[in-house]
Amino acid sequence: MNHAIRVHEHGGPETLVWEELPKPEPKPGEVRLLQHAVGLNYIDVYFRTGLYKAPSMPVTIGMEGAGVVDAVGDGVTDLKVGDRVAYAGALGAYAEARCVPAEKLVKIPEGIDFTQAAAMMLQGMTARFLVKETYAVQRGDTILVHAAAGGVGSILVQWAKHLGATVIGVVSTPEKAELIRSLGADHALLTSENIPARVKEITAGAMLPVVYDSVGRDTFVTSLDCLRPRGLMISFGNASGPVTTDLGVLAAKGSLYVTRPTLNTYTAKREDLVRTAQDLFETVKSGAVKIAVNQTFPLKDAAKAHEALEARKTTGSTVLIP
Known about the structure:
The protein has helices at residues 42-49, 114-134, 151-162, 174-182, 195-202, 220-225, 248-252, 263-266, 270-286, 302-310, and strands at residues 2-7, 16-21, 30-39, 59-60, 64-72, 84-88, 97-101, 105-107, 142-145, 166-171, 187-190, 208-213, 227-235, 257-259, 293-298, 317-321.
């Protein structure tokens, strides 16, 4: 028996339907995975609402998970039945069993459990490329992270501190402010504050070389106003809705740069995926970055998890248990 959460029509959390499906058979180049944990991410909301278009409907949403190889398709030589593996960037994660292209999978090292692995693959690898490739954070930099208590945000705070940066985190509540301070944030600002004015005060007028923004529409202009001339705005999410802007604004605010990166681009080559995952695993095992799974839900209750995520009631990572 196999179950999955599927979306038949776009809409709210109520469109997430728990259904019984046949156990899939792996095609050439694929393995079948019995999943022990599934990561919850805001991109799942985008696919549920239709902001991101699925290849077909109904669709099983979800982009990351971890489990045990149960069957191997033709042509797969690097994995065998019983291997502990994890993945990110493969639509269809909200299922007890699923097939995944072998090239998308990485082996989970000793010392990392399934829940940690499912929580860190998409969010952790995203944080890793953001602070080491999209903008290579250097010792002495001062950076700003929106939604700093969330899944990617909480990892960004820790990794940037590990690299020697001064970290300004923006959160919605005093409780979340305390949380990010415990993760190493030097300054915890509330969304109700005048963020650019506070940044100007903190930096003695120098402003910032980079802002990491996963919120989108509601914070886009605020983020631009925190940057120094020729600074970089990294927009990597749309939690408040997609961003639309006149490019002339970038000129008016100091010849600014904006990028909209994705994990799939940064890990498109197998060697880049393996390198990114290995760096993430090593950094977590060293203790420099801790993966905080602060909420778990049964997979069949994915609707409740989505409600909590969209209501900003979650912190750190959330994992669904099949």
